[in-house]
Fold these 2 entries.
Entry 1:
Amino acid sequence: MATPIPKNRCAFTLGEAAAAAGGRLGGDGSIATSSVSIDTRTLEPGALFVALKGAGADGHAFLDDALRRGAAGAVVAAGRAHPALPCIEVADTLDALGRLAHRHLDRTRQARRIPSIAIGGATGKTTTKELCAAAARALFGPTLATPGNLNNLIGVPMTLFTLADEHRAIVIECGTNQRGEIARLAAIVEPDVAMVLNVDIEHSEFLGSLEEIADEETALFAGARARAVACIEEPLVTKRIPGGLRTVTFGTSPPAGVRLVDRTMVAPGRSRVSIKLDPALVQAGESPLAVFEIGLLGAAAALNCAAAIAGVAAMNPAPLRAADLNAIGAALGAVPAVARRLCPRTIRGIFVIDDSYNSSPRAVRAALAAAREVADATHARLVVVLGDMLELGALTAAAHADAVREACATAPARFVAVGPQMSAALRAMRNPGGDGAVETSAARDSAEAAPLVRDLVRPGDVLLVKGSLGMQMDRVIDALCA
């Protein structure tokens, strides 16, 4: 389910908006607007309506609605002004939306210091964003963070328009599925700190090779004003950090500035982590070790905690105190799993790991490892249900073959392949069940898989359900609830 666009109280005069958007104003520049809207269904009187053209609708078709609902003005494409509504004509209304958001952010920065971080990467962005936002609230106070999945060229500006007087820090998630999108987002946010978590096969149908994906993701660094944050074990990321940026690294190896030194599962879905900081990031004489519990599954989540600490350490103008680390640890421990992202649920006595929001090769590996760990700790039978990974282009067949091999290597009691690609990879694999310990099944889609899985699981099982959003793997979990 898409995240709703949040309402805002971002005010411009039409003259200021025209200058920010690089457009031509037809009307009185002193007219004040009280918010920015892209949807006439939720537009409030006094709003500045930005007419975006999307795949399903053209905002210019709703200018009459905007006028009736009391819009103070509109941003429109050149030549498409409304005769009764003051309009700012621009070459590209989506670009204008980003420019307006940048202007609002810039004038806020002129009024006060407000540390900011933008987070990108192939996997783990949303969870790390939630962790980093929690850490920022513990360190700085009220923090503006990307709600849900609003991480694109519409969602990021609409998030920034909600920046208000009470906010003391900004945490923005930046996603991409097309070349050039990250560079545009970086120019809008222009963060103090840019964090790129990792690079792996994702949206390769549109982004190209692994090297081209790395170029796209690391374009975030070009917008950074001060620092970069990266995983020390990600050479495709670290080698692309511009020389002028100070870098804070995280990871599991000793050179990392913020190092995950230990992780122990204390209960299904709960781990104790130990994270050690470089002494340069901590005030002299203070302990550089943070030990706390988190309610998130798997090793990847623990590494995301290290990334979050590295992020706020890079945002902070001074080294952290032990009290800061304690507060940050407590805040990270209170962060719940993000819905449909390695999110544990108990249904009919079954420990369900709902990872149905999206999928990629790296994310599949992380999910399989987390599920196997829980099953081993609870001496439970493991059932793995994997749906197709979409938008992989020429890498599709090889990626699905690897996923099936990795799933069977995890030694589940049952493995169910869902979708044409996963099913084809299962059929092509010789002896997928090895010595017969792994029983395998295939389904055309999630609708066919749902009753199959419902009938084969039993109380006490650990069930992993994963696939790309378009596969609607949540149907499998809904069938269990029914």
Note: Residues 361 and 399 are 6 Å apart (CA to CA).
Entry 2:
Amino acid sequence: MSDLYLAAIEQARVYDVAIESPLELAPKLSARLHNEVLFKREDLQPVFSFKLRGAYNKISQLTEDERNRGVICASAGNHAQGVALASHRLGIKAIIVMPRTTPEIKVSAVERMGASVVLFGDSYSDASEHAAALCTENGMTFIHPYDDPMVIAGQGTIGEELLRQTPKDLDAVFVPIGGGGLIAGVAVYLKHYSPATKIIGVEPVDSAAMHDSIRAGKRITLDQVGIFADGVAVKKVGEHTFDLTREYVDDILLVDTDEICAAIKDIYEDNRTIVEPAGALAVAGLKQYVREHKIRGEVLAAINSGANMNFDRLRHVAERTEMGEGKEALFAVTIPERPGAFLEFCKVIGDRNITEFNYRLSSRDKAHVFVGISTREEEESEQICKNMESSGLPVLNLHDNELAKLHIRHMVGGHSPLVENEVLYRFEFPERPGALLEFLTRAGGRWNISLFHYRNHGAAFGRVLAGVEVPPKDRPDFEAYLLALGYPFVNESDNPAYVNFLK
């Protein structure tokens, strides 16, 4: 099987539209990590992503009859632009089915390349099903974003370039994973010509479809995927890509949102480019690998896979970067409600800078404080916890508490003696007109909303925190309503950050 892929990669037609992206030294990150770190700059492609390689390679090899009937795909992002550009260059009709939640900037980018856009559904799954139906109805060729040998071969040309561009042996190459097309193509090529090079995939911890599938020994389907790194938000990896990854990839690392945000900043500081979250996955994984294995003096390459970043997401990235770098720690601390207590609390913190301090009087004997503290390294937060506990201050480390980082830090001080039987849920709403109205309409006025917090991060889905007064006897009906609503949700009623500040 590998011989067929090697031949397909070496004969792939990608350079009619793609450039041979540079492999650049990242001097600042290299110095900090004590390794030679190289960035493979796929963010410099004409559509700011590697995706046009596979799309063009597939479309360019269609028969004359297939070209006449046109092509179709489902995508909310980089694959859509790759298919649109490839089809335009070859003079082929293209239909791109995109979720209605797709930001206008991405829809416009595809339309400018001459493709027809059909907006359908709230998710990629909805769009994909509709694209399959249109494909059958119109006799078009479906261009899969990752699970197609010709698409995989197109992406594999990156591996060919890596070997050609570095005079040294690469100790490890870090590759982002969504459906698996990129890592499958790169791995099968590098493992043949440079078997000593480790191929390490990187996925978000909340979109770990390939990692979990490899562990299970078969392809599994995730119930839901994280929305931050939307370029790799895939519930089920491909059949071809799973087989190739299982055979040729050495390891798969999982990184969280904070680590991704810190990697976006690292890339910016070295080459002044702002990559999308999925485009920073490889660098985030590289940093984790160096830290955990104490690697020094090696040559490490990371594929910066794309730079289609919505500008309004930068605020969220900036907020989370400090925690991803281990330079900020968040705590919930209980201090006595009396004069001088805050001064004593500050003495425990010492000469560290307080980045955030939120509190509201909730009783006459104690106060719950939400505090951010500057740290020099991640391990320092544990020492701060110990110092507070030894001073008799109950403390909760919120470093891994997503509810606290997304919502609570912006809402502290919300205790209300008027609220009864409140339950708290975190939702993901499709970012489209009418979503909130639909939520309220289906509730039918049966339950009172006692808390509502919404923050948009420039993604297809907005994050919502809602408190609802639901008497115990109504809980079964309320849970049935949530299931019927169809929005992903998490019950946060017992979350300690909620209990301390809002309940």
Note: The chain has four domains: 2-50+149-321, 52-142, 326-400, 422-501.
